[in-house]
Amino acid sequence: MPRSSIPVHRRWLTAFAGLALAVAACAPGPAETGAGAESAALPAPVIDRDIDLDKLVAAAKKEGSVTVYDSSGDIVEVAKAFTDKYGIPATGVKSDVGETQEKLTREYQSGNTTIDMALYESGPSLVGELLPQKVVYTYLPGDLIDDVPDANRNPLTVLSKAMVWVYNPSVFPEGCPVDNIWDVTTPEWSGKTLMQDPLGKPYLIEWFNQMASGYDKQLRAEYEENFGKPLDTSAESAAHEWVAGFAGNSPVLTSADDDVSAAVAAPNQTEPRLGFLSIAKFRDVKNKGYKMAVCDDMAPFVGFQYPKFGAIATRAAHPNAAKLFMHFVLTEEGISPEMHAGGISGNSAVPVSKNNPPGLDDWDAQLVSFDRTELLSDFRNIEPMQDHWRLSKG
Amino acid sequence: MTRTLRGTEVDPPPEKPPARTGRGARLRYRLGVARREPTLFLGIGLVLVLLYLVIAPLVSIISDGFAVHFGDDFKAGQPVGALTGYYLWRVFRSPVSTELFWQPLVNTLIVAVGVTAVALVLGGFAAFLLTRTDVKGRKALANALVVPYMLPSWTFALAWLALFKNGRSGGQVGLLQAWGVNTPDWLAYGAVPIVICLGLHYFPFVLLLFGNALRRLDAQLEDSARILGASRGTVLRRITLPLMLPSLSSSTLLVFGRILGTFGTPYILGLPVDFNLLSTSLFSAVRSGQQGVTAVLATVIVMIGVAMVLFDARLVRQTRRFVTVGAKGAMERTIALGRWAGLAATGAWTLFALSVVVPVATLALTTVTITPGVFSADNFTLAFWTAEHLPGAPGFPHGVLRGTELWSAAWNSVRIVGMAALICGLAGLLIGYVVVRADRSPIAKVLRQVSFLPYLVPGIAFAAAFLSLFAVQRGPIPALYGSIALLVVTLAVTHLPYSSRSGISAMTQLGREPEEAAQMAGARWLTRIRRVVVPIQRGPLITGIVLPFVSGIKELSIVIMLTTGGTQLLTTLSINLVDYAYAQMANAVILIIAVLSFTITYLTQRLTRTSLASGLGG
């Protein structure tokens, strides 16, 4: 190697580093225009008015198979039920929302599609990215559409699910040890609360944002109720203040709800703990002998209800099978495997699950209700809320 | 052979230029030569392909860091696609830059220094025992102590959790906690366990590199110094260490570089206490769809990797004058351990126990217990291996050996890694061929350097770069995302440096004569490669295939971002199961990978009568 090569390297490095720093110094200006691609109108759903189920089944059979992603493992059972009914091999894959979003997007861009359809739990990124980018589209089967309320159509809500605060009734036989959501920000509960890491779970960030936009008053009132003085904060909203207090109270963050439920409610647990998890985990009460109950008197709410949306990949390799699968999960037969532990179908003709955990009787009154008009603004607030969480975590 | 005669008649001898000049004739002549002696053209082709596969991904990912991506326009205040400093600002200067970059950078340095130190101490100790002392059972020890490297690196992390896990990460606690021993957070998660686990995985690296150098060191040099009156300390400081510096710095940087790109262990042990390395920070940026931030982080990792290797190259260049293998007679001196013999052997075997027996046994135990640490008959079960239906694990509702998931992942692993390894081995041999045959031509020099380039790029950053390049169709090159081709190419390129090294050193030993003899007999180039070079180089070729295979089969950092529904591998299956808190099944899959990797290495060693540890055990 010639002797001069090192100075050349160094010169390049210096130049690059200088350039990098110079550019890094430029903080972004205020977003004045807001005319970005993400604010483009939400594409209209594809309504299959003249649906002929027999023809659809025949076309789907010809395609041979279908692959569906969902963040809940119940999808494996749904896929099995689908295969049993139609004889079309279906694969249900449990996959985190972030992973599903990334794979859907990349598969769409590359044209090598393996995911035909997704049941998807992050409304903001669906409305802000996947739908406007045409990675996926909303499909509504015509024969069921009359039973799908307008509010559930675009994007299509397949199922409403709930996240709730839970405790272990054998550790706390008197009932839930807390009755106010602000309690979990106090030193008494430091290090004793569990939930999935919000940075990995978009719907938790979504919960924070929905609280911030719709529940400011209730949160302030409950703060005063709990601490005897009005909330005095410079934070953007009472929800921001709560998030900061909760994040700073060293909650135990996990990568799966199963770790939350096991730590709170496994038969060998004796520690005083509170968990925030999906009601789907109530299946373990029966399956694994878990001791788990909903904190049903927690004010102002015991949890959050959120929709699981359904969307078909625009470039699906099995488009008809995907449509048939979407039709399937909009029927009672198809969605019931996902409703073992409660849930409300997006199709109003499907009866409400009888398996809602005890104590959770009135979703609208007990849970933060989901305001889908906020989806786009929630999309913009994902990163600020994630950053708020990051910075509040001690 | 009739073709032979015809061949010699038709092709003009290369020494005599044709009488007729002119462009067409010269070209035809050159082509004629090239057909029989295509080394140069082969070299040019290889260089071009490699440059594309190494440089283009890097260019692609670096440029990703400077353009506004979809959905970020309102954050950056610029339209999609515009040139922006937003991502640099976010990573280096914004309020969250500490979480995204600076803290992970500090953590990475801490872990890298720690792991390197642990690996050097353990590996150095083992190398010294095995090469310089009369410790009992050297051969057995030499084989035993390289086993940790055959296990997937995050085996140790899972075993660590199974032992030390406390309430801080939710789920069931580990064995110690279940037995009433409180494990503090610093011991259960974060820097300390990551350093120990990775140290146990990487010390065989140091043992191999350092051990071989130590063995070749002429003991007479040390003796001379002693005779001249130098104390033992002075000899160590002034003679042994300086001579060992090249191998010391190489092993240091090798380990250090690996840490930059390693993913599994820090992901498993860091998450509960929010201890991020650059690699895990990069991964979470990928998973949260932040392409710009991903690009900037990957670029930084690459730059650190490159800086390290340049530093190493400088260090080695300065010390190259010290030759440890001379033409003069060398002496090996083994130190009689005397009364220390027992202690030394115990120490070495303890190291083996800690780095192999304990983790594997712990993991095996977890796969047959329902609640960790409870030893009653009803707590033991084979359900996680063989049950037809497992309640409470809806995402994977049966034992790992049932259903299709494990088998299709295993088939994918064998198939994809096998193809990559095959490409690696053949490409390595060809590179060796060109580098040795076209010696002195600039192409050989360039090829030697270029084939080494992937070595500079830490695995996970390379994966991010490949993801960026092959996400969409570019010109004639189709989008590879979602296809097994992407995995094959990425694995092949990242493992090429090892194969090309072995290819080059093997070809150096093969003279031109056998090939020239075949050429005289009229064999064309392909025939010569097929019938002469490959058979002679069978041993190195197999090594050049097996080493990437063994390393690839337990590879996670590179493949974690690239697998899709149809291309699930054993390693990604295992990490998915970890994510879904199906600990028993995750551990079962890891054991399967470990057994697979160990068996293949062992079989190859038996078949080719080579050994990773060859020479170490005296």
From TrEMBL, chain A:
Alphabetical list of PROSITE patterns matching this protein: PROKAR_LIPOPROTEIN
One Pfam assignment: SBP_bac_8
SUPFAM superfamilies named among the record's database cross-references: Periplasmic binding protein-like II
Leader sequence segment: 1-27
InterPro entries for this protein: SBP
Protein keywords: Signal
Name of the protein described by the UniProt record: ABC transporter substrate-binding protein
From TrEMBL, chain B:
GO cellular component: plasma membrane
Biased segments, Basic and acidic residues type: 1-18
Entry keyword annotation includes Transport: yes
Lineage: superkingdom: Bacteria
GO biological process: transmembrane transport
SUPFAM superfamilies with a match to the protein in the record: MetI-like
Organism from which the protein derives: Actinophytocola xinjiangensis
Family stated for the protein in its record: Belongs to the binding-protein-dependent transport system permease family.
Coiled-coil blocks: none
Membrane topology qualifier: Multi-pass membrane protein
Disordered: region residues: 1-22
Record domain ABC transmembrane type-1: where: 105-312, 410-604
Record field: transmembrane: 40-62, 109-130, 142-163, 186-210, 253-273, 293-311, 340-365, 416-436, 452-472, 478-498, 540-562, 582-603
UniProt entry keywords in alphabetical sequence: Cell inner membrane, Cell membrane, Membrane, Transmembrane, Transmembrane helix, Transport
Classification via PROSITE patterns: ABC_TM1
Stated name of the protein: ABC transporter permease
Pfam families: BPD_transp_1 (PF00528)
Subcellular location per the Swiss-Prot or TrEMBL entry: Cell inner membrane; Cell membrane
